[in-house]
Amino acid sequence: MTTIMDGLSRMDDIDVEGRRVLLRTDFNVPLTSASGGAYATVADDTRIRAALPTIEELLRRGARLVLVSHLDRPRCLDVGFSMRPVAKRLAQLTGASVPLAPGVTGAAVRELTEGLAPGAMLMLENLRSAPGETCDDPRFASALAELADLYVDDAFGSADQAHASTQGVAYLLPSAAGRLMEREILALSAVVDQPARPLVAILGGTDVGDEIQLVRRFVDLADAVCIGGAMCLPFLCVVHGVGCSLRPPEDLEPARLALAAAAQSGRLELPSDLLLRAGGALTGIEPRVSGRLDAPNDHVGFDIGPDTADRYAAEIDAAATVFWSGPMGRLELPAFAGGTRTIAEAVASTSATTVVAGGETVQAMRVYGLQDHVSHLSTGGRATLKLLEGRELPGLQALRRATSRESGVDPRVARP
After folding, report:
1. Are residue 279 and residue 140 in the same domain, yes or no?
2. Would you tell me which of 62, 216, 236, 305 could form a disulfide with 118, CB atoms 3.0–4.6 Å apart?
3. What are phi and psi of 190, to 5 degrees?
């Protein structure tokens, strides 16, 4: 049986001593303005910490490490795109010097990489400052490849992006998956390739249309699929034929298709009660039994009800493998966070293999202090969901091809 990890080289397969290693990381971290807003500091270093095993191993093995990542412009902060706050935080975490290059490519940057000593590292500036990055310009990929002898991809969260640093450069250098990339893939393989059963999927969040393929994949794969969050509302509208104002009409057809696909298996579970909020009210809870959905049209479901939360928790308790993505309610409103907390505590207390994905879901585990009680917290975001849907990710596809052909030639470029 093939698995997600098949065809990927690992760090064990490459000799890094004394060689320049271009390490693609996912350091797209949230930033906070410092005094006066003149510069920024890292608000959440989770992604930086997740990459430490790869970084520390490469340095310990004598690599000359060249770090590269993208960093999106922070909303509402006039702090630019610089990786300087990230380099500073990485230096604090490792106790090592992390100088910042003046750019991403070019003669000055190449000279700095050539001057690196074994066991030392350099961080390049933000990839998003380079116009050839997001369009996977072969010339930019070649310029990146000139900075190193080997390429290691540890940015699983960016593996769904066909960019020069995640795809193009892998065709030009001997390449391998980093330890974080490897951990992510192995954890997800435990969910979809040969899961211990029963396999229970808890799916929440907001966008049925965007995640309908994930729902349908788990309907085919899992023993129980429990739907919560705003995602459950269009399903309930289809089942009961009322309350369609709860969700945009365009979400109803994807929900209808998923219900039809699940009709034979009976694996799709919907809430039996909800916590509702009156349209304009900011406080107060009005529980309603969703079996009738007889609430006025200006009432909105903001959390699964306690009976549903207990029922889903019982499914988790009986499972051997659990995958959870998406909160069960509106976490920003404490009165509607109870369903999510019940699920989080059930996931943390089970003896099953547990994989938790999605930014809000992972953050909820951290807020409740339960992050150390799960098998794996995924850093992948959309990459995680796409992989579980069965899609091929450009970053992984490039790594697989990189192990089966001679490095230095991009097979996508026609030869004369």
Report:
1. no
2. 62
3. -65, -20
The per-residue pLDDT for range 326-378, each reduced to its tens digit, is: 999 988 888 889 999 999 999 999 999 999 998 889 989 999 999 999 999 99
Q: 200: part of which helix (H) or strand (E)?
A: strand 199-203
Q: How many CB atoms lie within 10 A of CB 373?
A: 15
Residue-by-residue DSSP string for 283-309: S--EEEETTT--S-TTEEEEEE-HHHH
C-alpha to C-alpha distances, 182 to 6, 268, 405, nearest whole angstrom: 11, 31, 21
Burial 121-148 (b: 16+ CB within 10 A, else e): bbbbbbbbbbebbbebbbebbbbbbbbb
Give the domain extent around 330: 197-351
Answer yes or no: is pLDDT of 261 > 90: no
Q: Is 159 found in the same domain as 25?
A: yes
pTM, rounded to two decimals: 0.85
Query: Tokens for 82?
Result: 């610089």
- DSSP run (H or E) holding 199: strand 199-203
Per-residue DSSP letter, 11: G
CA–CA gap between residue 145 and residue 133 (Å, rounded): 13
The stretch 31-43 carries a mean pLDDT of: 70
Q: Chain-wide mean pLDDT for the chain?
A: 86
Whether 260 is covered by a domain: the verdict is yes
User: Residue 251 CA to chain centroid, in angstroms?
Assistant: 23
